[in-house]
Specification:
The chain is mainly α. It has 2 domains: about 60 residues; about 190 residues, Up-down Bundle (f41 fragment of flagellin, N-terminal domain), CATH 1.20.1330. The protein contains 6 helices and 4 strands. A hairpin with a 2-residue loop joins strand 1 and strand 2. Helix 1 runs antiparallel to helix 5, helix 2 packs antiparallel against helix 3 and helix 2 runs antiparallel to helix 4. The longest helix is centred in the first third of the chain and has 56 residues. The chain is rod-shaped, with a radius of gyration of 40 Å. The protein starts with 11 loop residues before the first helix and ends with a helix.
């Protein structure tokens, strides 16, 4: 006949449930890497302010990217206008030659007028998101927000590259007149070339300013993101180590209880030996 002493079999259940509860909490922290901040409301409030500034910087970055696209389009169109003016100068030089016949001068003028039309088309179509820096519609600087509080801004100066604007000012010119009149047109084209070069240099400087400011805003975003993390984010390595420790404790807990409950079996062995 076998004799046994009942062990405390339900004892591991509460221990296992407790380990599961703690493990779930640590698991959530390890998954989200988010620390408990309710105990430090001042820190949480600071983090919330930085989050708001971070969101504002995202809007600033978007505005700067839009301004950068506007200047890129203007620069690309402006460079084409400069190339066209060089071609127009070639036609004006040919028409200004005393030996040029009226027929040839008329041919030069036809090409000249077509090039003038190309400038008008370029200045009118060089738009991004409905904004053009070259068609003369902007009468004042285009201000781009440059800081999260909205106080700083970057100004973009529009450049009127229409054929009748102050930069080019070639509206109504033709190469069909006398040699002297054609020479005056040539001089006007030369002035336009110089003016366009200056306008493009100014646009390029402003484009580089936007690019550098955009890089600064990106660095500020990274610093804020890191700062917010230091304030409220949990230590993922620490939480993972705690999770692993709890898992080991959970596995060893029932085994320890089983070892402890095996002591009555030793007493039974003594009785069996005596039998």
């Amino acid at each position: 006949m076998s004799v046994s002493i009942n062990t405390n079999r339900p004892a591991p259940i509460p221990l296992q449930n407790l380990a599961n509860d703690k493990r779930d909490q640590v698991q959530n922290k390890a998954d989200a890497a988010l620390g408990v901040v309710s105990a430090e409301p001042a820190v949480y409030s600071t983090a919330q302010k930085q989050r708001a500034e971070f969101s504002s910087l995202s809007a600033v970055k978007t505005s700067l990217d839009r301004a950068s696209s506007i200047t890129d389009v203007a620069l690309a169109a402006g460079q084409q206008v400069g190339d066209i003016l060089n071609q127009m100068r070639e036609k004006a030089v040919g028409a200004a030659d005393d030996s040029t016949s009226p027929t040839s001068r008329a041919a030069f003028d036809g090409e000249y007028q077509a090039l003038l039309q190309s400038i008008s088309q370029l200045s009118a179509s060089a738009k991004f998101d409905g904004v053009s820096m070259l068609n003369g519609t902007l009468t004042s600087n285009l201000n781009v927000v440059g800081s999260a509080d909205g106080e700083a801004s970057i100004s973009l100066t529009p450049q009127d590259l229409t054929v009748g604007g102050s930069v080019i000012n070639l509206a109504g010119t033709a190469l069909t007149g006398t040699t002297r009149e054609t020479g005056a047109v040539l001089a006007a084209v030369d002035r336009a070339i110089v003016n366009v070069s200056s306008a493009l240099a100014e646009l390029d400087a402003q484009s580089k300013q936007i690019e550098k400011h955009g890089a600064l805003v990106t660095k500020l975003e990274n610093v804020l993101d890191t700062g917010i993390g230091k304030l409220v984010d949990g230590d993922i390595a620490k939480e993972s180590a705690r999770l692993q420790a709890l898992q080991v404790r959970q596995q060893l807990g029932p085994q320890a209880l089983s070892i402890a409950n095996s002591q009555p079996e030793l007493i039974l062995q003594l009785f069996r030996g005596g039998a």
